[in-house]
Amino acid sequence: MAFPIPLASKMSGASVEQLAYWRKTNVLIPEIESSERPYLYSFRDIVALRTFAWLRGDHSLQLIRQALATLREMDLVDHPSTYKLVKLGRSIGVHHPGAEAIDVGREPGQAVIGTFAQVFAEFETVNKRRVDPLLRPRVGVEVNPGRLGGWPTIVGTRVPYDVVASLIDDGSVSPEDVGAYYPGVTASAALDALDYERSVHGEAA
């Protein structure tokens, strides 16, 4: 699944400007389309970008770059989403099995206890932008990495949120009638889909 810039920004918490800067400075080049527009991100890119945005709330971009460089020096050269990066006070760590994190920022190699769950939870960026929980951005909208490549869908269905949002956006179909087109989609879930779609484009404008 390929995520366009506005949705990648919304899901990751990185602004459109940050995405452009991070592409330009090679912090993260989109896996799907890296050389020309339209730039499209993978779900793994979204997870990595969200991690960077979460870390950026308390840490400098320079420290994040240092952490990525340390990962490469340690021969950890997989996609950044493969590694669970965590905040270690004033530093950054990479999470290892067994609940240990290894410092890859200020004191590379030092082991510390850390967690990754915070990246998927709601958080606030350094610019005071509220970032929705990744897996449940709205009550009626969910992200399941195993369903449609992580594209947001209506809870409990395979129906893409944006399809439902476009159906009711112009008022030609009421939220209560969406179930006739997509059984299992409630009026409240349809309204949540529309709210999420508007927030995607509102923040990207």
UniProtKB/TrEMBL annotation:
Any one Gene Ontology BP term: regulation of DNA-templated transcription
GO molecular function: DNA binding
Xref: Pfam families: DUF433, MerR_1
Record Gene3D superfamilies: 1.10.1660.10, Winged helix-like DNA-binding domain superfamily/Winged helix DNA-binding domain
The HTH merR-type domain, residue ranges: 8-69
Protein name, entry field: Uncharacterized protein (DUF433 family)
Organism for this UniProt entry: Leifsonia shinshuensis
